[in-house]
Amino acid sequence: MSAATPPADGGGGGIGGGGGRSLSGAIQEKVFSKVLQTVVPGDYDIQKYAEMSERGDRRKDKDRPQFSLTLMSGNFRRFNARVGVVFIFQHQLFRVLTWNHPTHTLSAMAVYSFICLDPQHLAILPLTIILLFVMVPAFIARHPPPPNTGVPQKGGKVEVYNAYGAPVAPPPEVKAVTEMSKDFFRNLRDLQNTMADFSDAHDQIIATVGPATNFSNEQVSSGVFQVLFIMCCCMFVGAAVVPWNLVFLVWGWCTIALLHPAVQEWLLAAPDSEFVEREKKKAVGRFKSWVEKDIVIDETPETREVEIFELQRHKRDSWEWEPWMYTASPYEPLSSARIAGHRPRGQRFFEDVRPPVGWEWWAKKWALDLGSREWVAERCVTGVEVEEDKERWVYDVEEVEESDEEAPGGRRRVKRKGEWRRRRWVRSVVRKKWAH
Known about the structure:
Layout: E1 3-5, H1 17-39, H2 46-56, H3 69-82, H4 84-97, H5 102-117, H6 124-142, E2 173-175, H7 182-213, H8 218-238, H9 244-258, H10 261-269, H11 275-294, E3 303-314, E4 321-327, H12 336-340, E5 359-361, E6 367-368, H13 372-378, E7 384-386, E8 394-403, E9 411-431
Antiparallel strand pairs: 1-2, 3-4, 3-9, 5-9, 6-9, 7-8, 8-9
Helix pairs in contact: 1-3, 5-9, 8-11
């Protein structure tokens, strides 16, 4: 824990001088390195972690260092030497809440009541804390009262603290505790227990809230969603008329009263201590019966239609077409891939075509799309010729010059089928169900 102490005169070393301090630092480094190595798995590759963090870590900050055992060890020692003030506050707060000193608890609740009844005075609280708990103790440390001489005052009067005069003591300074000191190990103990308390509270909250809100049981989570939605609507309308200051006042006093040791003993020893548990089970039973009766989950799977284009290429000096590929795009004349000179990409065989990730086939076979003109119009495909019957191919169209004695100049431009043709196949897919 951090302590307010006056600055020491000079830079005097401890026992053993600088050699002792260096030896102590080396021992500390080894101890904390061993502790951290027990936390990090033995097959952990820090270089691999750094590469992975550069690719997908959203919390990465380029201006801050990456994970390092040496840096982690040093920062942990620094943190543990300075975190004592947090644990002091935590222990004091716990004593206040548990009525360890009833006068302190009642004083704190008086301040809480005053703020509840007059909330704008909440802005004064931080300033008051600085005055009473920082500056006043610092002034008293700078101007301490005179030591008690043991001689009674005249008339039995109590000696009054005198704030006048020059300072007689050095100013207090908050310093980090010395490593390997008793306070250092007290901080380690409190940090250890705080981590355990946080982990237990985290697991308890997840175990309580998770099943009702993560849609593992869709009927229950849907019921919780409806209840919360109705409550949000009611609060949106009626929040303005609720006397929140009185609500928080009553809630705070009831909570503190329930934390009193005598009240807790009475609650645990009461003959009807199981009454709350029985009523809780009844309420949960009524909620589940309402969910099972009134909430119906649509079990119809989500289906979609996927497409694939069968692409064929015209053989040179022949009337035959060569099967080429099954691709996700029609590879039309004005497509970006054709303009860039890229070859089509896809699968050579129909059997190699796979459904999208997270989906599975619903229909047993692929079906030929007989409405070639519709998908051509939807994609605004130009420079093609649509086959209205037969196999519904969509051909590339290119213009070439041919000799023609009757045409001006003896040549004319004619349109003919180009190098590629394609047709569209469709097949239904369904979302994969989560497997328990």
